[in-house]
């Protein structure tokens, strides 16, 4: 093997969407820190960030370089002179994409494929909430009477109904649900486009596509007859439930006809692996609040943690532990976890003091690993602060979950193929 091939193999490339703020930015910071401590000294991190504008991209890259310098200064204190070695192991670059604009997504996919650079991890993080405000009487009452639960599973958010994202025209068939497109479908098209860059073979592990879900991905928020949640005031929660359905059923034989097309599977290659994560409850800018209310939300979340909720990292850096772990953990370790105990929704969790860990999240109809009879007694399972509408998985509910997963995979593939034809025209 010549030196250029060896150098190419030593680069670990991660692409993070929506990296300019909140969870996306913290995920990038965490990837830098953990990569330098956990990966071999011969390996370099190529971190590609995406934002919607050039100015945001430049600003984000500058702030990430500042974070890198702080990390290097800390390293120098323990091992003088090590910063020069470590600084060469992180490269940061940027791309522009608007996930609500499918043409923009297609152009990014084309650029990356044309470049031909191996992509090891794609973190589908960008998204919007689609909320217009709060039902204040309901919010105040639920906080006063049921603080911990209402801080984790709020029922008082008011969402827009019928918000659409025009795709170059005003005709109904040229529009898509805005939250659906930003949170799911834009990433879906991007992941399909870059799948050839993420294949594994005898010398390379398969790439990883990590989808960011939410603790609020309620089963009741998703209507299979309204895939894009255009008739719902819970479009965000619907989009996250859709994400759960897609990823948790992605390795079942019943969905293979759709997933094989989506991941452009070939017999001589190992297709990318898809993983599901959520950050718990974090204080981020996805909810656009005045400064006073933002600090009130921050205090409310800390109180919920102090009351014993395991789902309140609060800090987006702590919330990024699950996606960073899925990005950098040994592939064999992840495979062993999901082969032995079932496919999981991996969550960021903390104790009352803010000590972090990654755990499995219970999902309605799926449980912790898609297996009937599971109990919250495993090392990486929790039932603390369980959503009160959650029911134990039964044979019937597990079958219903798989049938629904098969249905949405088929519909998403049909939608993708339809839009790619439109975009080609």
TrEMBL record:
Where does the record locate the signal sequence feature?
none
- Swiss-Prot/TrEMBL GO biological process terms: ergosterol biosynthetic process
- Keywords of this entry: Lipid biosynthesis, Lipid metabolism, NADP, Oxidoreductase, Steroid biosynthesis
GO CC annotations on file: endoplasmic reticulum membrane; lipid droplet; mitochondrial outer membrane
One GO term in the molecular function aspect is:
3-beta-hydroxysteroid 3-dehydrogenase (NADP+) activity
Keyword Iron-sulfur included in the entry's annotation:
no
| Coiled-coil residue windows | none
What the record says about family reads:
Belongs to the short-chain dehydrogenases/reductases (SDR) family. ERG27 subfamily.
The protein's name in its UniProt record: NAD(P)-binding protein
């Amino acid at each position: 093997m010549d030196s250029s091939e060896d150098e190419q193999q030593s680069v670990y490339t991660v692409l993070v969407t929506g990296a300019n703020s909140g969870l996306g930015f913290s995920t990038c910071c965490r990837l830098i820190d953990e990569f330098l401590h956990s990966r071999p000294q011969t390996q370099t991190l190529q971190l590609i960030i995406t934002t919607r504008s050039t100015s945001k991209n430049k600003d984000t890259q500058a702030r990430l370089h500042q974070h890198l310098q702080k990390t290097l200064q800390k390293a120098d204190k323990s091992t003088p002179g090590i910063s020069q070695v470590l600084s060469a192991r992180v490269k940061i670059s940027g791309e522009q994409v608007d996930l609500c604009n499918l043409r923009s997504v297609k152009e990014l996919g084309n650029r990356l494929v044309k470049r031909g650079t191996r992509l090891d991890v794609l973190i589908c993080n960008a998204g919007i909430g689609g909320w217009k405000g709060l039902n204040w009487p309901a919010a105040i009452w639920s906080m006063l009477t049921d603080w911990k639960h209402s801080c984790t599973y709020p029922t008082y958010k008011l969402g827009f109904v019928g918000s659409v994202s025009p795709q170059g025209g005003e005709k109904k068939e040229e529009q898509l649900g805005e939250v659906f497109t930003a949170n799911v479908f834009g990433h879906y098209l991007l992941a399909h486009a870059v799948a050839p860059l993420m294949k594994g073979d005898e010398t390379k592990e398969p790439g990883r596509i990590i989808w960011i879900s939410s603790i609020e991905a309620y089963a009741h928020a998703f209507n299979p007859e309204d895939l894009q949640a255009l008739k719902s005031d819970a479009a965000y929660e619907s989009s996250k439930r859709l994400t759960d359905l897609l990823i948790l059923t992605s390795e079942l034989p019943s969905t293979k006809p759709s997933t094989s097309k989506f991941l452009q599977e070939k017999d001589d290659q190992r297709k990318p692996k898809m993983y599901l994560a959520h950050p718990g409850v974090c204080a981020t800018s996805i909810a656009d609040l005045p400064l006073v209310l933002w600090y009130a939300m921050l205090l409310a979340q800390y109180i919920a943690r102090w009351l014993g909720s395991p789902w309140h990292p609060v800090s987006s850096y702590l919330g990024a532990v699950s996606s960073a772990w899925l990005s950098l953990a040994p592939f064999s370790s992840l495979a062993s976890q999901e082969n032995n105990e079932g496919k999981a929704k991996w969550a960021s969790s903390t104790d009352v003091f803010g000590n972090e860990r990654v755990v499995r999240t219970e999902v309605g109809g799926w449980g912790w690993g898609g297996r009937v009879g599971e109990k919250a007694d495993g090392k990486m399972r929790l039932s603390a602060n369980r959503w009160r509408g959650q029911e134990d998985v039964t044979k019937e509910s597990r079958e219903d979950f798989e049938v629904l997963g098969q249905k949405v995979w088929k519909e998403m593939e049909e939608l993708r193929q339809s839009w790619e034809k439109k975009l080609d025209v």
